[in-house]
Design goal:
mainly beta, SH3 type barrels, three-stranded antiparallel β-sheet, two-stranded antiparallel sheet, 9% helix, SH3 domain-containing protein, signal
Amino acid sequence: MRFGPMALAALLAVPALSARPAYDFAAPGVAIRAEPAAAARVHGFGQPGEGFASNREEEHEAYACGPYETTLWHHGHNASTGVIGWVPACDLLDSD
């Protein structure tokens, strides 16, 4: 079977369905925000077990998650619902 360059590029760009997200939500109702700031519009919420697939991380305004504080924010999407946005690192857990 032969693929043209555009079809092959599109095929390779599709993430593997079996790939496990690198992170999960640390608590129920974690806000997924439009911008990396506490006052930013909320696109949706993440729940433990749904997974969060981060595509980049950046330092931005400080954010407190209970007794923890971080300036590191992850941009990505909820692996279960597809909601895209920013989540502070203290609201995420490594999936390992």
